[in-house]
Write a structure and sequence with these properties.
By secondary structure, this protein is an alpha+beta fold. The protein has a domain of about 60 residues: Roll (Nucleotide Exchange Factor Grpe, Chain A, domain 2). It has a three-stranded antiparallel β-sheet with strand order 1-4-5. Strand 4 and strand 5 form a beta hairpin. The radius of gyration is 49 Å and the shape is elongated. It starts with 12 loop residues before the first helix and ends with a strand.
């Protein structure tokens, strides 16, 4: 009798020998070491990233503190500059005050000696102004400049229109900035 049973084919001998020598390995056993390696690698990357983050945080905090220190020092410097800005000018005025006090302390001074002393004191004052970049505005005969002059009145004059005829009070510039405008009378335009 013949049966239709099939007999399984046997693997070739070399393959069978190789399979017999190597232990049975499943797909799971391959995945586990890789997962462990990946987990360790991820942990290491996470540790390095945390270390970098801590380093950047430290640098940021230091930079922030330095910026605050610079800002604080700048504010202190500005406060000192405002408080002592007049220091140099005040030192220049001290000899002028000393001269005026000496003139007043002199007994039996004549008009000529008082005038001579006043002229010397005025020279000291002008020198102090020059050293402090304080210059005089005396615009007689110049064109009226509303940025430097303040017109008090307008008069008819033989001079060209809008020309300063009279200076009632001199003006002053501090480093080319108007400290006080000159009070002037201006020539009227011809009508």
């Amino acid at each position: 009798m013949q049966t239709n049973e099939t007999v399984p084919e046997e693997p070739p001998v070399a393959e069978a020998a190789a399979a017999a020598e190597s232990p049975a390995v499943s797909e799971e056993s391959f995945a586990e070491p890789q997962a462990e390696d990946n987990g360790a690698a991820v942990q290491e990357e996470l540790r390095l990233a945390q270390q970098k983050a801590d380093e950047y945080q430290d640098l940021w905090l230091r930079a922030k503190a330095e910026t605050e220190n610079v800002r604080r020092r700048a504010q202190e410097d500005i406060a000192k500059a405002a408080k002592f800005a007049i220091d140099r000018f005040a030192r220049e005025l001290l000899p002028v005050k000393d001269s005026l006090e000496a003139a007043l302390a002199t007994e039996g001074a004549t008009v000529e000696s008082l005038r001579a002393g006043s002229e010397l004191t005025l020279k000291q004052l002008v020198a102090a102004f020059e050293k402090s970049a304080l210059t005089e505005i005396n615009p007689v005969g110049e064109k009226f400049d509303p940025n430097r002059h303040q017109a008090i009145s307008v008069v008819e004059s033989g001079q060209e229109a809008n020309t300063v005829v009279t200076v009632l009070q001199k003006g002053y510039l501090l480093a080319e900035r108007v400290l006080r405008p000159a009070l002037v009378i201006v020539a009227k335009p011809a009508s």
